[in-house]
C-alpha cells in the first residue's frame, strides 16, 4: 500500500487526506501547529492517522508521496530532508487534479485573483455545473472526492504552483504580477514571476492563457519565455484584436472572430481594476460557450468579495470601507485609486519588504490622516509622516476605528487597506476585516 504523508492539517491537507484514503493510500497527517477541532473530528471519523504540535520525522520519511500545505516554505529542514530522500512533494492542486477529468480554469496573479475567480464562477454557474476551489472555499481535493464537478474554477497562489508537476488548466488567467511574497523567493522578483508562470508551463496550443497586456512584467516575460498556449490578452490602454479591450467605456471582447460588447457603466463592481477582472472573467465565459446575455446579467448583479473594498456602513455621512484583503502595496494602490472623497487610511501589519512609492500621488491627493495599525510602524511613519497632517499609531482595531471616527468629517471615507500581512496582530486578513466591521458597528 502506498504511503501518503500530508504536511499541514488545514482545509487543503484534510481534503487531500480524504481523497488519498479513497484512492487507496495509507495516509498520515502531520502538523507542527495545532489542528483545528473541526478538522480533527473529520480525521478521527474517517480513521485517518494524524499528529499535531510535532513532526515524527522517521515516519514522514517513509512516505511514497508528500503533499505539503502551501504555507510551508521550501527552506524548512524537514522539506529538505524529504526532497533529499527523493520523495516526491506535490501541492493539493497537483494531487487532486490527478483524479479528475474536469475542465479546469486556473486563476493566479498578485491581485484580483479572488474577485476574478468568484466573478468567473458566478457567471459559469448560471449555465454549467462548476466548483470553486483552490485558495478559496472548500478544498479542491475534497470537492473532487465528494462532488466531482465537470468544471472547476481554481484560485491558485504562487505557493501552490511551486509544487505542481503535470497540473494543466485548460484556461489559465494571470491577472497581474507585482512584487509580493518576496520573502519566500529569496527577495528575487524574477523567481516570483517564474512561479506565477508555472500555471501555463504544461499547457498546449489547445489551451488558453488570458493575461493583462498592460502589465509590463507579464508582457516582458512572455517575450523572453514564450508559452505554448493560445494567448488572449486584455487591456484598458490599447486595442486588442484577439482578447478584450476598452473602447469609449465599452468592453470589447473578440474570440474566434465572435464579438461581445458590455458597457462598463453597468458593471456592479467599481474601479479600473474591476474592469480588468470583468474582462478576464468574460473571456473565460466566452470560451466555455456561456450566452452573451448571461455574461452581461452576471456582471451587472455580482455582489463582490468580502474584505475587498467592501462598504460596511455609513455613519454621520462617513463611509467605512473594509479592504482587509489588501495584503500588498499594489492592492492598496487600487483601493486608494478608487477613493472619490477625502480618506482616513488605516494601514500596517507585517511588511514583506514593501516599497510604498507608487502610493505617494494618492496619499498626497486623497489621504487626510493615516492610522498605523501594526506591531512595528516605524517604516510607515518615516515614509508618510511628512505627507499628512495627522499620523497616529495603535495596536487595537477598536481604537483605530474610534480614532478614525473622531478625525473623519461628513462626506469622508474611512478605509482599512493595510498593504501588509495581518499575522502580527490578527489570525489572518479575514479576522482583521471582521474585527474592523464589528468595531464600526459598535461605534
From TrEMBL:
GO MF term (any one): ATP binding
Gene3D superfamilies hit by this protein: Mur ligase, C-terminal domain, Mur-like, catalytic domain, NAD(P)-binding Rossmann-like Domain
E.C. number: 6.3.2.9
Catalytic activity: UDP-N-acetyl-alpha-D-muramoyl-L-alanine + D-glutamate + ATP = UDP-N-acetyl-alpha-D-muramoyl-L-alanyl-D-glutamate + ADP + phosphate + H(+)
Any one GO cellular component localisation term in the record: cytoplasm
Broad class of the protein's primary localization: cytoplasm
Annotated binding of ATP, by residue: 109-115
Enzyme's top EC category: ligase
Domain Mur ligase C-terminal: 307-420
Subcellular location(s) of the protein: Cytoplasm
Record has Transferase as a keyword: no
Keyword NAD: no
Domain Mur ligase central: 107-285
Pathway(s) the chain acts in: Cell wall biogenesis; peptidoglycan biosynthesis
This protein's UniProt keywords: ATP-binding, Cell cycle, Cell division, Cell shape, Cell wall biogenesis/degradation, Cytoplasm, Ligase, Nucleotide-binding, Peptidoglycan synthesis
GO BP term (any one): cell division
Role according to the record: Cell wall formation. Catalyzes the addition of glutamate to the nucleotide precursor UDP-N-acetylmuramoyl-L-alanine (UMA).
Family per similarity comment: Belongs to the MurCDEF family.
Protein name: UDP-N-acetylmuramoylalanine--D-glutamate ligase
Organism: Seonamhaeicola aphaedonensis
UniProt gene name: murD
